[in-house]
Amino acid sequence: MNRIIFFILPFLAACAAVPTEATPIQPTGAPTGADVAVIAHRGGAGLAPENTLASFKNGLALDVDVLEMDTHLTKDGIVVVFHDATIERTTDGKGRVADFTLAELQKFNAAAQYAGGTTEKQSVPTFAQVLDLAKPTRARIEVEIKVPVPGRYAGIEQKLLDEIAARAMLERVQVSSFDFGVLKDLKTLNPRVTTVALLSLDYFRAVDINQPARVIDQIRALDAAFIAVNKDLLTPALVQEAQKRGIQVEVWTVDREEEMKKFAEMKVDGIISNRPDILKRVLGK
Description:
The chain is α/β, with parallel strands linked by helices.
């Protein structure tokens, strides 16, 4: 009798572990659409003039998870939100951001070249203005420190951190850069700052994308919490390796619905898009 019981008990245990039709299998730890952060690229550049207070207000009205933006330093040392090192693509002026004082820069219309139709004049905002706009909301901030040729802006990392600290927003801001030296300096200045390593084609010319463990080794050495990868380069293997080792993954810039669905199924942590309105619908948020 004891021998019969010995054989029957494992069999019964195995049967109990098999889910019935009434008990569907649930994914374990896999993000759903609701888990994917909606990140408004330059505030949502497909909906309003990029990197302006108008775009950030619109992104906040859409209740996005993260406002993404870019920063440069003016001639008089003010951190401003702007993408290019020169101003002609988006404004009615010409020249380098770094060659203007803030007062001079804000005379130009940052919405002058917006292709989405007529809009009221927008001044180039300061980083402080955008932080003040976002502070009363739930939105996080992802801010890129730009590195124009021929080199980095002296002191921009500390200036950026000072603006964040003045508003007690460190826990809501993550700072990104393609330049790993910038990320290292940020961590030296404040080890608590959340950093994002931006990975582009230039990066993968030096580091084989087919060796995801090597990529994540480098990111871990930087103590970065995120990677953000060009949509044409991101692979499921890199996503899995990063998340397995505690690194969150964002993908940029994703504006087509089919690609939004693809990356959501890939279980990325955040999608950066010029059309956060469409992204929210696709993700069911």
